[in-house]
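Bug #77: duplicate submission created two jobs. Keeping one. Sequence:
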Amino acid sequence: MLRGIVRGVIFLLPLIVINALATMLTEFPYPQWQGFMATCLNGALDQGLHAARNATGDYISVLMAMSVGYSLGRELGLNFYRSMVLSTVSIAVFLILIDDQPRYMRFYGMLTALIASLFSAGIFIALGRRTLKSTNSWLRKVSPRMRGAIASMPPFLLAVVIAAILQVTVSALTGGYTIQQWADRSVANFMHALQTAPALGGVIYLAISQFLSFFSVNGDSVLSGVNDTIFNQLARQNLLLNQSGLVPSNIVCSTFNDIFTRIGGSGSVIGLAIATLIWSRSRSLRRVAAVGFPCTLIGVPEVIAYGLPVVCNPIFFIPYMLVPQINFGIAYLACQSGLVPLTITLQDLSVPVLYDAWHATGGSGAALALEASLIVLDTLLYLPFVRLNEKRRTFRHRALLSSLISWCHSREDIRAPLDLRLCPVDLEVFSEGLVTDLADDLRADSERLFMLYQPQFLPSGKCIGAEALLRWNHPKLGFIYPPLIIAVARHGGFLSQLERRIFRQSCKAIRSAADKTGRSDFKISVNVTGDSLSSDNVLRAAAESVAASKIDPQMLWIEITEQDAFDSSPETLKRFTDLRSQGHKLLIDDFGMGQTSVRYLQSTSFDAVKLDGSITRNVLGDSNSRQIISSMSQMCHKMRLKVVAEYVETVPQRDLLESLGIDCYQGYLYSPPVPLERFEEFLLRGKGDADAKKPA
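Kept job's structure:
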C-alpha cells in the first residue's frame, strides 16, 4: 500500500515543482522584482505565472486522489483499465468527503484525497473481484471492457454510498460541517488550547506536520487551518508591532517556522541534499540531490523526499523528525537571548533560503548567519544516515538484482526475449537504475566494461581462437549477468553503441594477439543481436573497427543465435551476405534447439555452428543428446560447416564429443574466459593446459 501511495504522489512532482517556482517568481518579496514583474511584457509574464500557479495548484488534491487511486490499483495487481476505474472512484469519494468545496481541492485536501483513495481501493478489492467473476459467467459474449465496466458498478456504487452516508452523518452530528471541516476544526481546537504556551504548540505542530509528510501527506497543507488561525496571527502581530515602531513579541510564528525550522521544506532536507552531494558514493543519488537541491532553495523538498527516497524510508525517519526540532530549539534560544531579532514579515517557504532570513528580520546579518549555521548542522546530522541508507540501498539492490536474474532465467527457459518492459514493476524500476549506470560507464569508456576471451581448441589441443565475452563490473553490485547487460542496453536505447565498443575492443585484441604471437591463423568471434542486424549499424561498426586495427576481416567472426537467425527478415538476411562480402565468417550460436532448417543453412552460407549448451552438457548421460549431436555433425559436415561444442568440462565428455564428430571445443576443461594476456599465452603455446590434452 505504501509503495502505491508513494508512486501516486511521484506523478504529481512536476506540478508541485512548477507551482512552487511560479509562486516564488510572483511573490518574491523584493520591491524592484515586483516592479519588474508588473511591467514586463505589460504584465503578461506575471499573468502567465499566476495562471501556471493556479493551474497546478487549484486541483492538486483531486489529481492526488486520481494518481494514488491508479497507483494503488496497479500495486494490487489490477490491469490498466480497472486501475483507471479505481482512480475515478477515488475522485468521486474525495469530492463527497469535501462536499465540493474549492479550498480543499487545493493542497489543503491532500490527506482527505489519500484517505479517499485508500478507502476506495479497499472497497474495490474486497468486492470487485467477486463481481468480475460473476459477471464473466453471465456476460460471456460481451466485450471484456464492457464486462469490466459492469463488474465495477457494485464496488463503485458501494464506495460512493458509504462515503455519502458518512458525510451526511458527520454533518448532522457536527452542525453542518463536512468531514474535512470537522477534522480541521478538531485539530485547531486542540492547538488553540496551547496558545498560552506557543513554544510547546510549535513543537507539537512541527511534529504532527513532519509525521504526516514522512508518510507522503503534505503536513503543512493538512494543518493549514491551524497555521492560519494561530501561527499566521502571531506573525501578523509582529508585523503590526514593527510597523507601529514597537518591538515584536512573538518568537514562534509562521515565518519563524518556515525560515528557521524546516529549512528547504519539510524535514529540513536541504541538509540531506548537501550531505548526499558531498559524501554519497552513488552517482544516481548525487544526481537526484543535484536536481532536488535548487528545489529545496525555494521550499520544495519533494524531489529529494521522493527521489532518494526519504518518504516511508525507515532509515530517515529519525533525522526527518528530529532535525527540524533541533533547528527549532536552537533558533528559539537564539531569538530569546537577543542574538537574533524576531521576524517581522509574513512570508512562506517559496522565498529562497538565506534571503528569507535576511528579509524576514529586516536585514539582520545575525539571522542570515543563524540560518547558514543551521544548514551546516543539518548537513552533519544527516551524514551518518546517508551512509546507512546507501548500505541498505545496496543490500536491497542486490536482492532485486538476484530477482531480475531469476526472471531472465525464466524467460530464457522458454526462449522468450529479455524485454525489461515485461518484468514486474519493481524490477523494471530497478532496471532503470542499471540503464543509467551502464550508460555512464559506456560514455566514460570505463574500465568496468571490459572483454574476456574464452579460448577454443582443436581435438589436438591447439588453440585456434576465442569467443569475446562482455563483462560489466558494477561499482556497487559486482559482476552483472551478461545477457542482462545486453537487455539493459537495449532497454536504454544504446545497444548499438555498446556493440561498437565490443567490436572495437575485439579488433584491438586481434591486433595485439597477432603482433605478440606472430600468428594470423586464429580468430575471435563476436556476438551480435538480431536488433543490430535490423539496421546497417553492425556493418559500419565491423568495418570501422577492422580498418582502425588494420586486421584481416576473416579473423573477426560474427556469431548470431539460432532464434535471431531464423526470425530474420529479408533485409537482415542481406546483411549476412554483406558481412561475408566484407570478409567476415558467420557462426550460428545455440544451434539445435530452435527451428533452423537445412535449406536455410544452405542458402545463407554460414561457416560454422555452435551446438546448444543444453545438448553438450548432457551428452554423457543422455542417449538422445548423443544421437542429436551425431546427426547434426553429419548434416553440418555435408554442408562443409564446422561444428563447435561449448560447455566442455571433462575429458570423457570431450572424447565422446570428438567421436560424435565435433571439430572444436570451448569450455572450462581448457579454460574459463580469460583476459587478453592469458589468451595470448594460449596462442603462443598453441595448446591448452596439460590436463586438457587428449590422453594417448
